[in-house]
Amino acid sequence: MTDDTSEPRPTHASRRALISGTAAGTGAVLASAPGAAAAGDGSGHRSRSVLDADEHWPDGPGRRNRPQSPDAELRAIMRAVDRRRIEANVRKLVSFGTRHTLSSQTDPERGIGAARDWIYDTMSRYAQASGGRMTVEKQSYVQQPDGARIPTPTTITNVIATLVGSEEPNRVYVISGHYDSRVTDIMNFTDYAPGANDDASGVAVSMELARVFATYRPRATLVFAAVAGEEQGLYGADHMAQTYQDQGVDVQGMFTNDIVGSSTGDDGTRDAHSLRLFAEGVPTAETDEEAAVRRSVGGENDSPARQLARFVTEVADNRSTGMRIRVIYRRDRYLRGGDHIAFLERRFPAARFTEPNENYAHQHQDVRFEDGIQYGDLPRFCDFGFITRVARVNAATLWSLATAPGTPKGLTVDTSQLDNNTALAWEAVPGAAGYEVVWRPTPQDDWTHVIRVRGTRTSTTIDLSKDNVFFGVRSVDARGRRSPAAFPVPASG
To answer: Looking at residue 41, what is its pLDDT?
Structure first.
């Protein structure tokens, strides 16, 4: 793979300031002339050259870390993503009138049951091109009354297309959207609830990528899901995540695409080339012991979700996707929560894709025209070109994850003695041709430097103090495809 640092720019300026996780460290150190450290103006202040050099402290080994550019195969995958199919699928989902979790499951034309069966039939048709490698299932269970949003026993059904990996079927990456919808009253399951953006857009991404990927043979398993019960309490995703946990599936990454249908905010601000990625810092399922270690080593910005987000910026923030990935350092938006939380609760790395500027008049609203404003989650407010680019971001991410080796496990740093070196050790990764140590100064968001480990060794010592920078290790295959980085914990004993 080659390196590509070119990046597309939003076509319209936004008045909102977005937090970006794509700030690239230069990896360069400014050299000062001999004796510069003593230079000054006679007042005891250091010279500007020294101050500038300090901005790149500390110096250390390795080359600059650069993004991965898509290879020919991935570029072909992204070209195959079809805007017209995405639009048709969103409009078809809207045509079921309501997809409320409590709506009819037997009416063949209206309600969540009709939507469920159409998604299943459509993805089953896509799977026929896979030669048996992709299977589609209705994953159902009965949710008992919860005293809140589920008043009676209710069947929750996820529609899941699984493309089994050719070499590591138990290493799994998941994308999902939720196909249930709602209006203002969360218990109103009869009125028109189009749910075009929230979340037919995310379901359309899952469905379109199931179609595109059906003829490919990734190393690891890919899952394309449409889940139910999200609006009532993340029930479908919770069941799916629990099933994977019970089966011992190694889910190394999950992304929910929820509200990815519009590029225009409530004030008219339009940014058609930015996509937010919410990634938590402190892990949801962190134990007291793990919290103590995190506080000790300063790992608040190095959770598995953050490593997954860094990976996305390296493989999907480029001209081929047409998107800038805006990493947001929190689990989700205020007062909201998505299906990735169910995976985080079970210690699976997970994150959420969401459009850059939301319009709340088009979410969770009765369809109506009031005071000159059109309310309701209608297809007319979707930007189908934007959804297509979101699908390409997901495609680039999934393919890059599933064709590279897995993330290293058991990564430790030796803290048994006081020294200025960093000794790292990890478990061997199937399919890895080698490993890379990545590091960054502690104020930096993204990995700035990379050091190749000789051969296939699973330990190395770096001539750089572990006290001054953050380290990670990632696996690399013979073609240079690399995994997300793992973050070390102090070796026990």
So the answer is: 47
- In the Cβ-directed half-sphere of 247, how many Cα atoms lie within 13 Å? 13
**pLDDT bucket at 3, cuts 50 / 70 / 90:** very low
Tokens of 352: 């959420």
From the list 428, 427, 447, the residue with the least C-alpha distance to 437 is: 447
φ, ψ of residue 441 to 5 degrees: the values are: -60, 145
Topology of the domain covering 407-490? Immunoglobulin-like (2.60.40)
Predicted confidence (pLDDT) per residue in 374-390, tens digit: 999 999 999 999 999 99
With 60 as the cut, is the pLDDT of residue 223 above it? yes
Q: Going by C-beta distance under 8 Å and a sequence separation of 6 or more, which residues neighbour residue 353?
A: 202, 255, 256, 257, 258, 260, 275, 276, 277, 390, 393, 394
Same fold, 72-403 and 407-490: no
Question: Residues with Cβ < 8 Å from 135, sequence gap 6 or more?
Answer: 127, 161, 162, 164
Give CATH for domain 72-403. Answer: 3.40.630.10
d(CA 312, CA 393): 8
Q: Where are the domains of the chain?
A: 72-403, 407-490
3-state secondary structure 7-67: CCCCCCCCCCCCCCCCCCCCCCCCCCCCCHHHCECCCCCECHHHHHHHCCCCCCCCEECCC
d(CA 350, CA 311): 12
Question: What is the model's pTM?
Answer: 0.90
User: The tokens of 187 are what?
Assistant: 């218990």
Ramachandran bin of 420, using left for φ above 0, alpha for ψ from -120 to 50, beta for the remaining angles: alpha
Question: Among 164, 174, 171, which Cα is nearest to 224's?
Answer: 174
CA distances from 30 to 152, 242, 296 (A): 67, 51, 31
Burial class for 87, CB neighbours closer than 10 Å (0-12, 13-18, 19+): middle
Instruction: Provide, for the chain, the percentages of residues in helix, strand and coil under a 3-state DSSP scheme, each rounded to the nearest 5.
Output: 30, 20, 50
Helix (H, G, I), strand (E, B) or coil at 216: coil
Nearest to 355 by CA among 422, 270, 473: 270
The three-state secondary structure class of 161 is strand
